[in-house]
Write a structure and sequence with these properties.
Elements (H helix, E strand, L loop, with lengths): L1 H8 L2 H7 L3 H10 L3 H10 L3 E5 L10 H9 L3 E4 L17 H17 L1 H5 L8 H9 L6 E2 L2 E2 H4 L10 E6 L1 H10 L15 E7 L8 H13 L9 E5 L4 E2 L2 E2 L2 E2 L1 H10 L5 E2 L1
Parallel strand pairs: 1-2, 1-5, 5-6, 6-7
Antiparallel strand pairs: 3-4, 8-11, 9-10
Helix pairs in contact: 1-4, 2-3
Amino acid sequence: VTVSCEIARMTSARRARAFGGANARTCASSTRKSPRTLALRRLRSPKPVLIVPGFLADASDYETLSTCLNKRGLQAAVAPVRWYHWLPCLGGRSVRPVMDRVYASLVTLLYEGPDAVSTLEQDQYGWVDFAQEMADASKGAWTGGSKLIEKMPERRPLRRKASIVGHSAGGWISRIMLGDLPYGEYSYDAARYADRLITLGTPHTSVDGITKKNLDFVNLNYPGAFEEGVNYVCVAGRAVRGSTKGVLRDFAYQSYELCCGSGEVWGD
């Protein structure tokens, strides 16, 4: 809005100087949009928002959030990560099978829109692909018998960038994805496509040896709000308290215990 107001307040003489005189301005306007038009267009264009599911969560769990954001005038989509996509990542293994899908969703959202994100792997992923990921998660996601990343066309970064909303493990996975250092065999450098990361209930540290390996990677290489040009927002809440019933421990209790050493705490 500030940019648009400043342009509107420019005198005709200043506009003429900016575009090389009245004749040059007239010629330029016939071949390209004015700065004011471009600024207004960017303001009117819905902000793309990619939602990244949490550990062992399914994309369907976040459809309500996506619908709510779209009703508020945003262009939201959920990365099509299914609960079974997390299985090859268990035991502290590489999270590339999930990260590849998140990265492909981010680029697809920017260039093709939210509808294309929901059909990213439609009717292509099968048992053979699952077996490939289980055999070596560090090789990334497979779909239709080949690597998902290799199917992605080369894209030039746009001025328009997306916001990423990562829930739970989806938050620190997104932090790795924003960076340009190789993770496994691939360098994502997704900061080219995003200007904001909002993490919801993300465990940014861990005391457990299983998850500590991946969290140490992100915290040593990309500490804090690392990427320039990316706004980081970390949100924590008191939604679910870990509990036990005799010797049984619920999912929240086990998750919190891995992160902070105690399961009987509040989290989300």
